[in-house]
Amino acid sequence: MYLTREEERMLGGEYGYAARKAMEILVALGKIYEAERMVEIKSAQVSGVSYKNLGDEGLEFLEELSRDGRVRVPTTLNPCGMDLENWRRMGIPGDFAEKQLEVIQAYRRLGVELTLTCTPYLAGNKPGYGDHLAWSESSAVIYANSVLGARTNREGGPSALAAAIAGRTPLYGLHLAENRLPTVEVRAPKLETIFEASALGYLLGRILGRGIPLIRGIGGVSPDQLKALGAGLAASGGIALFHVEGVTPEAVRNPGMKADERITVERGEIRGEAEKLSENVDPDLIFIGCPHASIEELLSFHMALDGRKVRRRTWIFASRAVRDQAEKLGLIGKLRDLGVEVICDTCPVVAPIRSLGISSVATNSFKAAYYLRNLGGLKVALKPIEGLAEEAAR
Ligand code: F3S
């Protein structure tokens, strides 16, 4: 693999321990994927922030890096295990909070922006078309590639952090134009709701497993629908890029795009996906915001409640950036008056949710349902926003 003089010097330790460690990780990756060289990146998004997933070993690794390491490019952070301001109100145990704060301090020393969201593109880290990135967090990766037309592989937390410290990543995979063409055409019905988009993504991810779908027929979908579609595709499949005819930037620039393999998905199959995954539960928690909610989703939930107070624990997970925007609009106060909490910096999958006495949830996110059910052992009901509002007010 070709390395510039500066890259050689980083690897040789001239820039300190963290830069050397970062280059070792990147060179090893480059060799595995036969990258010819590195490419400079515009930003990084780093996952692996919750102490629940990192444990003491992960914390130690971060502390070592943060002794002399600094990120070279704007770097944002995925959710951690608690709301940094309201962790006591969430019911987070003190010993967990203490460790989580140590993790956050290590990232702060590394110069990472404490955005703590999986929607960095709603929180000031919005890449441009063709920008090379090193992002981790599968829903953010697929959004950056597909909806924004930026270029990133599906990084893990350590490789994204290594790329942030070195300011570059190996040039392979989705960084190369020839690897971004569709591998399968999907004809699907017009999507009406975010829930349907989430279900279609989940269904396609499950059927296809890998590859790059070019989706036709779903209509002029909104950014929130694209966010939900991508999260579903990336959760049940290893998919990091999709195109939507007439909507996503690469499909718009290349209207003749096609693939040899074709499949069709019927509306009944999309509906059936919720029935398969959903259980009949009396939820301890009702939530939206996986991926973190946009301002439009906060508004939709408030509208769906139609002035009714919630009668059980109801949370919306959102970035602090979106929360601040909602605060200015007076929306946070209105939601709180109805009993709805907007929780920041964390998410139901990376928070220690069982220690909060939660063993069943209702949500509109197929991604959250998949993880909470399969990895967390929780009971999950899937419903669209209106159904969740009904359930919360009942
Ligand atoms: Fe985001 Fe957590 Fe869902 S990181 S995509 S809210 S699982």
Summarize this, please?
By secondary structure, the protein is an alpha/beta fold.
Task: Provide key terms for this protein.
3 domains; four-stranded parallel beta sheet; Aconitase, domain 3; alpha/beta; 14 strands; 43% helix; 394 residues; binds FE3-S4 cluster; five-stranded parallel beta sheet
Describe the structure.
This protein is of the alpha/beta class and 394 residues long. The chain has three domains: 5-177, Aconitase, domain 3 (2-Layer Sandwich), CATH 3.30.499; 182-275, no CATH class; 278-393, Aconitase, domain 3 (2-Layer Sandwich). The protein has helices at 5-11, 17-32, 51-68, 87-90, 94-109, 138-146, 157-166, 194-208, 223-236, 249-253, 267-277, 295-305, 320-328, 331-337, 366-374, 385-393; strands spanning 38-40, 43-46, 75-77, 133-135, 168-170, 184-187, 213-216, 243-244, 261-264, 285-293, 314-318, 340-343, 360-363, 379-382. It has a five-stranded parallel beta sheet with strand order 12-11-10-13-14, with helices on both faces. The protein has a four-stranded parallel beta sheet with strand order 8-7-6-9. The longest helix has 18 residues, at 51-68. The model has no long low-confidence stretch (mean pLDDT 97). FE3-S4 cluster binds next to strand 10 and helix 15.
